[in-house]
Description:
Layout: H1 23-30, H2 37-41, E1 47-50, E2 53-54, E3 64-76, E4 84-90, E5 95-101, H3 105-111, E6 117-127, E7 130-134, E8 138-141, E9 151-154, H4 163-175, H5 186-192, H6 197-204, H7 218-244, H8 255-263, H9 270-284, E10 290-295, H10 301-314, E11 318-322, H11 326-342, E12 347-350, H12 356-368, E13 373-376, E14 390-395, H13 403-409, E15 417-422, H14 428-435, E16 439-443, E17 453-459, H15 463-475, E18 479-483, H16 491-509, E19 514-517, H17 523-534, E20 540-543, E21 556-561, H18 569-576, E22 586-592, H19 598-609, H20 613-624, H21 626-630, H22 632-635, H23 649-665, H24 672-683, H25 687-695
Parallel strand pairs: 2-3, 5-7, 10-15, 10-16, 11-13, 11-14, 12-13, 14-15, 17-22, 18-20, 18-21, 19-20, 21-22
Antiparallel strand pairs: 1-9, 3-4, 3-6, 4-5, 6-7, 6-8
Bound molecules: adenosine-5'-diphosphate (ADP) and magnesium ion.
Amino acid sequence: MTGRPETLFPLFAGLETLAGVGPKTAALFAQLHVTTPRDLLFTLPYSGINRALQPTVKDAILPATVTVAVTVGVHRAPKNRSGAYRIHVEDSETSFQLVFFHARGDYWQKQLPTGARRIVSGRVELFDGIAQMVHPDFVVPEAEADDIPPFEPVYPLTAGVTQKVMYKATRGAVALVPELDEWIDPGQCAQANWPTFAAAVAAAHDPKGDADLALTAPARERLAYDELFAHQVTLALARQKERRKKGRSRTGDGRLQSRILASLPFAPTGAQLRAISEITDDMASPLRMNRLLQGDVGSGKTLVALMALLRAVEAGGQGVLMAPTEILARQHLQGLQPLAETAGVVLEILTGRDKGAERRAKLEALARGDIHILVGTHAVFQADVIFHDLALAVVDEQHKFGVRQRLELGQKGKQADVLVMTATPIPRSLALAQYGDMDVSVLDEKPPGRQPIKTALVSTDRLDQVIDRLRAAIAEGRQCYWVCPLVEESEVSDLIAAEERFKRLRAAFGEGIVGLVHGQMPPADKDAGMKAFQSGQTKVLVATTVIEVGVDVPNATIMVVERAETFGLAQLHQLRGRVGRGSAASTCLLMYKSPLTETGRQRLEVLRESEDGFVIAETDLRMRGTGDLIGTAQSGVPRFCVADIERQAGLMAIAQSDARKLLNDDPTLASGRGQATRLLLWLMRQDEAIRLISVG
Length: 696
Ligand code: ADP
Ligand code: MG
């Protein structure tokens, strides 16, 4: 497959090839991201105007758009230039006026001569008790009645592109669509009652009524499915390519795993055991593992990762665990190193702070295989970091990394298995769109004994009361996080806010009780700040969102978030997940600046009502829309033109299983349906997929 199939050439030609579109209009269309007739096909009308011929305007509930046949009566020119030019007309039952401003009388004398029959269509309204149609949308002789669409589609527009131009251009584009072989599973088409692609495009641009504009109208649903299916085929191709890469079967005797499990004060949850066994199976298979471990904050992903890393070591290989921040990498080191030691496993850390001789020594030990497990920041993927035999790469809090970094990850070890972990409880539809190329394990069960977190909304006006409350909690030996607001885009002003708050709280609680960490601190200070809090030396930790992910201090039971209304719900949920980790009851205080907007309050109330990350994410998605939730461009989730990822999650799931099945049955897309699917990929501009087929 070297180039775009010829059948599609007309659809990818310039817009000027369409009747009624010149270079000027084409430039206007470009603002709508419409540069080819193909793009017009997927720009669908969002509503419609009923222009079916009526006998009279008399029965219409005005104002309304009406189409009637009329006999033209007398013309009345205005007395001065700024007045209205009026033409009296009569339909079958009543009379009304056509009204034109800035009109040239001689023009209308010619177009609408008194006594002639015409069909007019436009908005009729009452003015001073007289029905009038100002500037009709259509005025045609009766013989040309067909020029008026009985149900006129209404398109999304920018300034300059009128509905008429859009109407004409889309008709032109639809006419260019050839009959194409079917790429959708025939059973699916039949069951959903979907038309062919060509028929679907034609019908979607020619709705007969409001029902045809619905998401569930067969033509529109089919086009939505085409988009989703093309995307899922792309992901399935990526997955197939990953899986085809030879992996190595890594098995172990469970010796290290059981030794460490025995040393833990708790037993793994059912969900953890399930995930561990799914991962173990993947690692034992000769295919390369590419698995996502999804689990809400506090669900215990680290233990699952550790078990997988130990399996890699048991099999004679090495493992690496990459965290998004220095703080998290250090925390993993502190949590995991003692465990590793009990099992005789060597675990080391490597971050950007390692320099000179020390770094060199670590790298040498790593290359010799003397370090079994390496934890670190993205520094572990620098070019000169060479493993003796990397068997497994784990990425923690993957949502903090871009999709590209995820894809690059597999490169480090020659045949390394890859496990990525995320606490972002994204809704299923988005997960399918974003991670459709991976296999997924879900930790849907929290470790037992956790107490619910009480969440309250508090106005910033009541700061003093909050401080009093903290003072009482500290007296009882409890600890508290205090997250400062994201006031501006700039980190500098965040910093000022955090430092001011730090001073204020230090004044309230006394020297040595309050700590501060933020992104711009020298690394050593940051470490010291975290350590002082972890060890219980400081009782209050003022922070910017660097503590958002993963930090684990079980004795901390209060989370204060200032200006909570400026945070995303998922982020607040993450922050709240920092407390409620021990057995004591925990509280989360969401401080807002009044007055809060109605939606602002509703959003925060979602957090008060629910502790279920998935419920929160679904609500966030509904309230904010897909793009905002995860930043579409960097998340790798495409913008769909027709499909509504929020409301068509079911279709997305079908598309995924259908795409995977197709590639399973026909890995090279050589069959008839496979060929048709290739054409779909071209049609849908799935360049990535096309590249994958070309090289594969
Ligand atoms: P996350 O999924 O957010 O990364 P962690 O792995 O940090 O969660 O685990 C959160 C806390 O739960 C840690 O203190 C960990 O020791 C504890 N934990 C993990 N698994 C269990 C379990 N099965 N039973 C009890 N506590 C557990
Ligand atoms: Mg974690």
